[in-house]
Specification:
By secondary structure, the chain is α/β, with parallel strands linked by helices. About 30% of the residues lie in helices and about 25% in strands. It contains 16 helices and 27 strands. Strands 1, 2, 7, 8, 9, 10, 18 and 19 form an eight-stranded mixed beta sheet that branches. A seven-stranded mixed beta sheet has the order 5-4-13-14-15-12-16, with helices on both faces. A hairpin with a 4-residue loop joins β13 (about 225-230) and β14 (about 235-245). It is globular. The chain starts with a strand and ends in a 5-residue tail after the last helix.
Length: about 600
């Protein structure tokens, strides 16, 4: 390998790194991605992709392939809780409760009104090859696996990395303006002295990834994740289908998760773990072809810093979550979306370096909340089991009595059933966390606060309230262009460009934006939206209900589709007001 000079070096080839590579390629920024691993993930690992993540993946052109390979909506409408899996007692396999999850496969009107993109599910083992192939097509020869960064030095003008090609045991040097550390925290953050803060090793889990026919027992085709209260173990077990060509009860592959004691040496033996799985599931003769047995622990980690000079931590290098809620991979994708347009703007001279300082406060606060929510989701599962009375120290018959009570059997009857259903309902905090996925606000120098207080939340976990408050995601609406064609508002924004959206009577704002774009070299488009008058029409009055500014007002939307500035009405000097806002956001003079 010869030495390389490139604007951006991306270290790590997982979801964060590959997304960053694609986003920067779409923005015309040359990159080099190196990954110390020989291939993409060999484990299913993360699999849930929320609506906002799918919007980003749609931006780079891979969403449709992901939908085609992922779980069909009808097979991921619910998550459900079961009294065991299989066994001699008729109670085994009975469904204790089920909750609609993540928009009910597109049937929940709140999800439909929040995004043009459905939530979906695709295991990381199949997602990453799709991302890698697309990243390679956008940057031929610049996605290199089995290439490891072994040294990294910063100076005033850039970063010099020494990379070892593990295929040929040869080294080369990469000189870059900026480095995106997407390496899971394995190398770069440690070398730069970044501390990882938060609880670790809370619960240890063994995961078994296998091919098996479970259709005899896993009977609910519309259920994605099965939470199984195992009477023989007194523990939760979790069973998740992994496709790849069939889903629901007929999925060819599955992952089973089970916790184990910290001091249990037998749990480190793969043969024991597989036998234990069959035992607690009640299927000792199960014909399962095990692909991988892995062990991990529940932790909630947040990096002390996300920016260190010219190096930025992205994804698992900056935060690690329990899988509950599916917020880890999706947060990583959002990190990349937040950072990449800013790096591109600085590299092209559109913005000053100060714009990059907004990455840490914006994403660290959001990721920190997501880490905390993931921990709380995991803890609530434990709390439900304890409240029901399930206990690993119980005899199996005692745990069966607990489950019978939850099903409404026995002397407590309806009272026991209602109490159990009320407990299970609390886990909607994990499966209807729309306000976590959308309802957050960036506070940084890249957002101009208009002094409007945030409205009180109806529910700060479950209910997303669309808004145009500076710092929040641009609300989704379906518009109609002048030719009568329907278009999602997200697709009106062009890659790397700001968009000014004015009301029907906001032509002075549009003209001011057009002059600024021409005179100051800002990548800025401008439109008016109105029900009957505008560059785009609002046929359902959806924008009118959500815009929160007047007919002669306007908002400025960043390239990552976050509202950056708002004027509730007209201004005496619209060009001056808009120039001032853009100057503050971009850390440069805008005349």
């Amino acid at each position: 390998m010869t030495d390389v000079d490139v604007p951006v070096l991306i270290v790590g080839g997982g979801g964060a790194g590959l997304t960053a590579s694609m986003l920067l390629s779409k923005l015309g920024v040359e990159t080099l991605l190196v990954s110390a691993l020989p291939t993409t993930s060999i484990l299913p690992k993360a699999h849930v992709l929320n609506q906002r993540a799918m919007e980003v993946l749609d931006d780079v052109g891979v969403a449709q392939e992901i939908y085609a390979r992922g779980t069909p909506p009808e097979n991921m409408r619910y998550t459900a809780f079961y009294a065991g899996f299989a066994g001699p007692d008729p109670i085994y396999g009975k469904r204790l409760a089920r909750l609609e999850c993540w928009g009910g496969g597109g049937r929940d009107v709140d999800w439909a009104s929040a995004s043009p993109c459905l939530q979906t599910n695709l295991p990381q083992i199949r997602l990453e090859p799709v991302l890698k192939a697309h990243a390679e097509s956008l940057a031929p020869g610049r996605v290199r696996f089995n290439h490891e960064v072994i040294d990294l030095v910063q100076d005033e003008s850039g970063v010099t990395a020494t990379v070892r090609d593990k295929n040929d045991d040869a080294t080369y040097t990469v000189r870059a303006r900026y480095v995106l550390a997407c390496d899971g925290g394995r190398t770069i953050g440690r070398k730069l002295g970044v501390e990882l803060e938060g609880p670790r090793d809370l619960v240890r889990i063994v995961s078994i990834y296998m091919s098996a026919d479970l259709s005899r027992w896993a009977t609910d085709d519309d259920t994605l994740i099965r939470w199984i209260l195992l009477p023989d173990a007194g523990l939760w077990g979790t069973l998740v289908p992994m496709g790849p060509t069939r889903w629901g009860r007929h999925s060819e592959e599955w992952v089973f998760h089970l916790s184990y004691q910290h001091d249990d040496p037998k749990a480190l033996d793969d043969a024991y773990a597989i036998a234990r799985m069959k035992e607690v599931l009640g299927v000792p003769e199960l014909d399962a072809r095990v692909h991988v047995v892995s062990r991990w622990s529940i932790e909630g980690i947040l990096a002390s810093r996300f920016r260190i000079g010219r190096v930025f931590l992205v994804g698992d290098a900056a935060h690690r979550h329990p899988p509950t809620g599916g917020l880890g991979l999706t947060s990583a994708i959002h990190d990349a979306q937040n950072l990449c347009w800013k790096v591109a703007a600085v590299l092209t001279g559109t913005a000053g370096d100060g714009l990059l300082d907004s990455y840490e406060p914006e994403r660290r606060a959001s990721d920190g909340r997501n880490v905390q929510r993931s921990l709380e989701n995991a803890a609530n599962h434990t709390a439900i089991g304890q409240a029901l009375g399930l206990n690993p120290t119980n005899h199996r018959d005692d745990n069966l009595r607990v489950l019978r009570r939850a099903l409404g059997e026995g002397p407590e009857g309806l009272e026991g059933r209602r109490a159990a259903l009320a407990l299970f309902a609390t886990q909607s905090m994990e499966f209807r966390e729309h306000a976590v996925e959308y309802g957050y606000r960036y506070v940084s120098g890249a957002v101009v606060d208009d002094g409007t207080p945030e409205p009180p939340a109806l529910d700060d976990i479950r209910v997303y309230q669309p808004s145009t408050l500076p710092g929040v995601p641009l609300p989704h609406v379906e518009l109609e262009n002048r030719d009568g064609e329907r278009v999602a508002i997200k697709d009106v924004l062009r890659p790397g460009r700001f968009l000014l959206i004015a009301g029907e009577d906001g032509q002075p704002w549009v003209e001011a934006a057009q002059r600024i774009a021409q005179d100051a070299g800002v990548a800025l488009d401008a439109i008016r939206i109105g029900h009957v008058d505008g560059d785009y029409r609002d046929p359902r009055c959806s924008w009118l209900r959500r815009r929160q500014f007047g007919r002669d007002g306007a908002i400025l939307v960043r390239p990552d589709r976050f509202v950056a500035w708002r004027s509730m009405g007209a201004a005496a000097n619209p060009r001056g007001a808009l120039s001032s806002a853009l100057g503050a956001i971009l850390d440069r003079a805008v005349a």
